Amino acid sequence: MANARVLNGMSVDVEEWFQVGAFENTIDKGDWNTLESRVSDNTARVLDLFAETGTKATFFTLGWVAARHGALMRRVVDEGHEIASHGWDHQRVFTMDAAAFRADLRRARVALENATGARVSGYRAPSFSIDARTPWAHPVLAEEGYRYSSSVAPVRHDHYGWRESPRYAWRPLGDASLVEVPVTVGEAIGRRFATGGGFFRLLPAVVTDFALRQVNAAAQPGMFYFHPWEVDPGQPRVHAAPLRSKLRHYSRQGAMAGKLRGLLRRHAWGRVDAVVERLAS
């Protein structure tokens, strides 16, 4: 049963199937406009699932997507969800310097706000790429007026992770109110394990349930994420990608919608800005 005292953050990282980190060395960005777009239909399926279960969520969206799918962005907002930034084109933060990061934030925000008419106050780094290599990232976010970030994975992973960072929501700056709400990780026998996204899709749902109940027992909100392409088993195959990337990306997509439906019903969920508001109060 859901812990009635704790509201968990439900989030969707809105990007095309060809913009994922798994394919970043296989698909050239210059080819993106020539590839089949599936993000609108996939995100519509997610919106329908949220409507069915009475869930409100935050959609961390690429500016590149918002600039091309204004009607979709307006539907997200009209149905009571939050639009937040996922950067412009899924470039990892640790590949930029502070000036490039600021420019990326501004470009994405303009696209998102023009598409929706809603103020954007939340940010998620592509592939959770704020870590010990980016000490300038949180200061730039605060200077740009962001209220919160959900950009850190406090775990070790071959693509990302900042194991030494706090497991629960924290304020990274002493002179600003910016809150970092990390993605939920569980702990067992002295080790941390990741949840959400491909981990949720590939592993038994009980693993994520355990982690959420663990953090809720500490009176802390969980933070779950997934992508619209994860509910699309019919998407094109990238045959040139490495085998590990293909296994991670395509496996169990047909089961994802059903697993999500159960997860949404077993825990209390809300928009990330609502979670941050509760933390502040």
Task: Set out the fold topology.
Layout: E1 8-14, H1 39-53, E2 58-61, H2 63-68, H3 70-78, E3 82-85, H4 98-116, E4 122-123, H5 137-143, E5 148-149, E6 179-180, E7 185-188, E8 191-194, H6 197-202, H7 205-217, E9 223-226, H8 243-250, H9 253-266, E10 269-270, H10 272-280
Parallel strand pairs: 1-2, 1-9, 1-10, 2-3, 4-5, 5-6
Antiparallel strand pairs: 7-8
Helix pairs in contact: 1-9
Describe what this molecule looks like in 3D.
Helices cover 38% and strands 12% of the residues. It has helices spanning 39-53, 63-68, 70-78, 98-116, 137-143, 197-202, 205-217, 243-250, 253-266, 272-280; strands at 8-14, 58-61, 82-85, 122-123, 148-149, 179-180, 185-188, 191-194, 223-226, 269-270. Strands 1, 2, 3, 9 and 10 form a five-stranded parallel sheet that branches. A three-stranded parallel sheet has the order 4-5-6, sandwiched between helices. Strand 1 (8-14), helix 1 (39-53) and strand 2 form a beta-alpha-beta unit. Helix 1 runs parallel beside helix 9. The radius of gyration is 17 Å and the shape is globular. The model has no long low-confidence stretch (mean pLDDT 95).
